[in-house]
């Protein structure tokens, strides 16, 4: 085996995701384009720009002042809604933490893992630079912190909170450490993340760093011999180099043990073979100076850990600050650690393009190197013209390229390294390798896939669809199964949802162009199964499912093997017209319908759709009872088949749907006709002998009443079925009946079935004869929690009978007519998508077939808004944090729907005015209404405590500290204030006082003393 192709150590770490924003690049993709171009992305500006940013005019106009910085666009903006911050809290939060939150979210999505939904243990290792926003903006803006407590300010501005904040907002449960080692912080954070993965402390790790210095249009004064460049350019290893230029940026990578990443079919961008961290100690000229011995040691240590010889490494992304002291020391250390033997090794110099990103510099260099390995391109250093005189490029392996160059492959896989050195002497070095080829895959996916899209807001949802569409157009080689699986498992479901069903990339692109916002938010909706009864049967019902779904086919085959007729032939083979006539016979209809509905229910159960409740219509209740566990499948099928045979043996009859309330129908019934079902407020079904039903139909039609004859051969749920009762009861008494494990609503009562009813044979006999009280039953369900009502069977009869459902409920129909059923699982895909879009929990892991890979797809389009505190011109630095004593109550009106009437006077200050004013002040939201929810507005526990304290002081009413958890809206809080005591200046209720006095009078002196002692 060659020196380049070493045996795996088991310590390899895969880079499976990354995200970043850098000067001139709002994404990793644009960043790579800039790297390949090689041009400088620093921003030059004028003295007037600097003065406008807050630099003193005399300073900005000095001849030695350099107006240049690596500017990061949009640092004032943040998606506070997604992360649950009020505008006030968002404006206080360190912009570095805001930007890193978004970057961490994007990195996880890029890796194909869902923020807030990942079950694996995910560690966070992150670094941030000094909070310049606190010093330059918040503390220089009088009044900005007037309503901010010291603890709130600490939590919003302290960089120690960075990693923990990410873990909280993304719900990540692994180790969470903020890492600080000055300029090397972010690469040290990546090193620590690798160590944690190797030690088994987490299964996945997110690591990176951020630097945001504000104001961004603040340059620097050049002093000879300082770290700052005299030219305003950073020129690493060049003869003209005399200093660096600083910039802002953020980057994060997602890491996973290589063996696990390959087994889970993650996209591996590069492999970290090993890394090392050390410190120079005192072996250097000063605390801020670099140390050659420490750098040599850390590079050699990383090579040992990686198990590679340095001659196999052909690219090094250097620390490369462009200082006259630092560059020669770094070059000397690299030369001694790498040696002079081997193929040429290219040096990378990212700081020449985007400046020194301080705490984010290391991860920026790492991302650049990962991209170079991924694209197999050696990046250029276009700034370089001739070497620093203290650097010997001619006699060694190292070189700098003027143009991007294809990366040659000598033997084995390409290898690279990254260095990052911090002021104070903490050094980090990391060795990487290009990824191995992915494992072979079998043909995966379904014939029809479901693409799941979601966002917090409609505008974002449409952007999610547009970005995905553009991505698929740009990458026609993408596997549709990978796209679907990555969206299903790698995105956090949000309240505005849409789904796309498609068979290939072309149909996906077309469908994505037609995405529209949903009519209602997705909510935490349970699912209600509705099983239709006789009359909905069709030849061919479920044919597509029989052909494509193993679970459906298994249960249909099981039914076919148990029945005394050819169920499969009746449904799916032979002459359709002849089969339709056979299916009209009750002895065939009911077992066939039961088998199809039960098989369909099993498909949904397999996909994780477990109903919170069920309802069946007549025969459908047998399916509900079977799913609930009252019958086992064989018993239920035997009973249904026997019941159907007994019914078939009875004299023929007829059933008529009548468009009148049942109370208006009953008086006109005679001749043995009975009410068979009540399906709606103005819809019932009557059942009886054919001549009597025909006569009634004629009479009702002549009176202008809408009627419709049902396609049945017998008069079900009528006295004409009485002869069935005795033999059927005898069969029931031989069967094992059990209480339900899933609640369902009874046709007999229109209410929840009681356990003893479900296990009583007499119940099922009465069920045979009595009317179906479907309207009452579905009304009971509609009055319950928000749900998705799913018709589990052919047609949409029950969905129609259930009505619109209102805002809380979503109603979905069942199997379409076979003539209109789309190919390739169209019904199942569309319905699974609609269930998910409504808020039901679909187990997409069970939905998927074959092998699939997590792939990089467009990440969430953040809905950023400006949240920024501007410093006051000329304001001195000063701590403005106070305990913020409440102001005197001022009248505050709730949101009004119209103009104030002429001559209106200021209203009296009451609890509503006080509560609304305090909420608006502390939340920083001007239009808080009486019914707005504190936590949905971005409130948190610290703010809740302060609001309650303010309300208590302003009203004089003592409230519990957790009052906002039980009364989260202003209206509820006002009601709590009024219940808990009088408003300011009010008097105690005389009746309450009288009741209290009467209670005290009944107590003995000892009891009174004991009560007083407890109350004190």
Please explain how this structure is put together.
This protein is α/β, with parallel strands linked by helices and 1016 residues long. 39% of the residues lie in helices and 14% in strands. The protein contains 40 helices and 30 strands. Strand 24 (674-680) and strand 25 (683-688) form a beta hairpin. The radius of gyration is 37 Å and the shape is elongated.
> How far is the first residue's CA from the last residue's CA?
83 Å
Strand content: 5-15%
Average pLDDT, to the nearest integer? 90
Task: Round the Cα radius of gyration to an integer and report it.
Answer: 37 Å
How many distinct beta strands?
30
Largest sheet properties: 11 strands, mixed
What structural class is derived from the secondary structure elements?
alpha/beta
Counting copies of identical and different chains, the oligomeric state is single chain
List the strand order in the largest sheet: 7-6-8-10-1-11-18-17-12-13-15
Poorly predicted runs: 879-907, 982-988
Secondary structure tally, helices: 40
Shape: elongated
Helix content: 25-40%
